[in-house]
Design a protein that fits this description.
Oligomer: single chain
Helix content: 55-70%
Shape: elongated
Distance between the termini: 26 Å
Strand content: under 5%
Largest sheet: none
Order of helices and strands: HHHH
Radius of gyration: 13 Å
Structural class: mainly alpha
């Protein structure tokens, strides 16, 4: 199921880059020994992944904006990680 969702969602324009940036944010928080930050970043990533899948399932390009609407709170964003 995870493999299928990854394969499907990465077809959205820009999603590969977004997903990589999200993972880098999680790793940066882990490296900084910030478990709460890592957890928040991972939750944000999963919510954005869900939004991307919903956008694909709905088949509408307008729905793809939902995938970008979910962002980590500014205080939890890692410096240097692109949105």
């Amino acid at each position: 199921m995870l493999r299928l969702s990854r394969h499907k969602s990465l077809k959205l324009p820009g999603r590969i880059q977004e997903s990589c940036a999200e993972h880098l944010s999680v790793f940066a928080a882990l490296k900084a020994r910030d478990p709460e930050g890592a957890e928040a970043m991972m939750k944000s990533h999963l919510l954005r992944q869900r939004g991307a899948l919903r956008a694909l399932d709905a088949g509408g390009a307008a729905m793809a904006a939902d995938a970008k609407a979910v962002r980590a709170p500014p205080a939890l964003r890692v410096a240097g990680a692109e949105d």
